Amino acid sequence: MSTESASKFAWLDRLVDGFIPATIAAQREERQRARMFLISHLCGPFIGSVVPLTLFMLDPTPGYPTVVLAISIFAFWLFPPILRSIGRYNLLAFVSIQNLIFAILWSCYFYGGVSSPTLAWVLNIPLIAFMYLGQSRTLRLVFLAQFALNFLIFAAVHMFLPKVVDDTPLLALQGLGVISTLGAAGYCAMMALYYAKILASGVELETEMRGHLATAAELRSATAEAERASAAKAEFLARMSHELRTPLNAVIGYSQMLLEDAQDEGDQSGAADLERIHGAGHHLLRLVNEVLDLSKIEAGKMELTSEEVDVAALLTDIVDRHRNAAAANGDDLVLDLAPDLRTIVCDPKKTAQAISHIVDNAVKFTKDGRVVVSARRTLALEGEQIAVEVWDTGIGMAPETIPSLFENFNVAEDATSSKYGGTGLGLALSLRLCRLMGGDLSAESQLGVGSVFTIHLPTRPLARAAVADPDAWDEDLDRLQAA
Amino acid sequence: MPKILLVEDNELNRDMLTRRLQKHGFEVACALDGPSGVEMALSEAPDLILMDVALGAMDGWEATQLIKARASTAAIPVIALTAHALASDRDRSVEVGCADFDTKPIDLPRLLGKINACLNA
């Protein structure tokens, strides 16, 4: 089917589809049959009407038989709007077939009987009927019975009723024969062409469908492969973290022991060295823990508990744990809590971990300045939230480095971590924890002035979003296959 | 001198904690796994038990339950040592009858505080 001919008949397709009721349009097979039915009813009367027209022209006394025939043929134009409004397709198909049989047998009866020039139209009856009725065995049998009954009536009328005096001149009958046969052939050709068109578009659709299904299958196996790889990676990291933790505990524990001994004996330089080993051990342990947490989140294996948590108590606890570090840096650490914080439902450990890291950073990057931790309730599109703001007068950052701030081992933190300590993973982890809990983390900063980090957390955990839900995927695929 | 029974399967952790506790004036007995921990709770009659929960076939929770089930050892306070400070670990420690729980790596001053609190209770 070339695009040119497809577009040439596009108006016809639109006209045809305009008469198909929604109930039928949804079913592919029924839709195709309705299209055959409609094309036949819209175009058929143009071709069929050549018979009565010829009779009007050639027959000197056309009379009521020709008028009835003409009415019967033009009645086919009533079917499309009726189908559109009532939608009883099968019923209408049988009524239409009955009308067709009637028109054909009527003209045969009045114009030439069993040797009528309009007899060629009889061939079109089963062709049309089977195109209309589709695959149903019952409907086909009903049609055959209808066809037979009509012929029986025709035969009875022909035999028992008085013969009609056929006054049509022989020349008229011959002319009618030529025109009628051409009309019947034209009608048959039209239906055959339209059927071929539908068949071709069906094949095209099927090929396209197969392509889609193959792509879907490939996507599915690629997704499964990626999930396996991700799970394997997470498992590897979990094992690694455990394996790393055991010797690390020994390094931390023994260096702590030796440090205590050195301090007891007053060995200053030994104690300083041991303190470095001890500090490095702690740093490594934190790194291991954060890598494990990040890999868990990325593999979708991080599980959250949900408990009713008093916000003020949680924040007070976090801030108190940073008082020593703040004092060591000469910082003024202030907690500013709104009175209506009440409780939220969250994972207390993960929440504390995310907030704690931000406070830790603020204190770390601020010397002889101020760190303010404030919290209040806010109302966002997603619902009620707790906003925790950590504001400092520290070294700050150039605004353009903020977007990279939350990446794993980000450059901004990497450059400072050698001077200030830190793993380069903390902010990435905090952001992911916040997002996992249905919240968010954002930052604003100015170099040499300070930074503000804001954490938003829902007061009630949201329903988990269906991200890459395999069941939803299967439903989509089923719909595609059913189309 | 208070006597502590340390149930820990990792050699380095056991050695380290034993020495650090001894330095702080405790007498320390060691069990290498769950079943011997349960037996030594009876034979050594310690004042307190430090129980690593991640042991082999019989874990620390199960060993603690057995110790608490035996009348002669039920009164000995048990402090569970876990790898994570999870709420589930805390709940479990209460459920099996631990007096307290602490996380590894050991923060000795914190653990000493908990030990003294249990001994003075």
Please tell me about this protein's structure.
The complex is a heterodimer of chains A (483) and B (121). With 483 residues, chain A is of the alpha+beta class. Chain A folds into 2 domains: 3-217, no CATH class; 303-483, Heat Shock Protein 90 (2-Layer Sandwich). Helices cover 66% and strands 11% of the residues of chain A. In chain A, the strands form 2 sheets. Chain A has a 5-stranded mixed beta sheet. A two-stranded antiparallel ribbon of chain A has the order 1-3. In chain A, a hairpin with a 3-residue loop joins strand 6 (440-446) and strand 7 (450-458). In chain A, helix 2 crosses helix 4, helix 5 packs antiparallel against helix 6 (63-74) and helix 15 (348-364) packs antiparallel against helix 17 (426-436). Chain A starts with a helix and ends with a helix. In chain A, 28% of the residues are buried. Chain B has 5 helices and 5 strands. Chain B is globular and about 30 Å long. Chain B starts with a strand and ends with a helix. Chain B has a single domain, classed as Response regulator (Rossmann fold, 3-Layer(aba) Sandwich). Helix content of chain B is 46%, strand content 20%. A 5-stranded parallel beta sheet of chain B has the order 2-1-3-4-5, with helices on both faces. Chain B has helices at 11-23, 34-43, 60-69, 87-96, 108-120; strands spanning 3-7, 27-31, 48-52, 78-82, 100-103. Chain B is α/β, with parallel strands linked by helices. In chain B, strand 4, helix 4 (87-96) and strand 5 form a beta-alpha-beta unit. In chain B, helix 2 runs parallel beside helix 3 (60-69). Chains A and B meet through helix 11 of A and helix 1 of B.
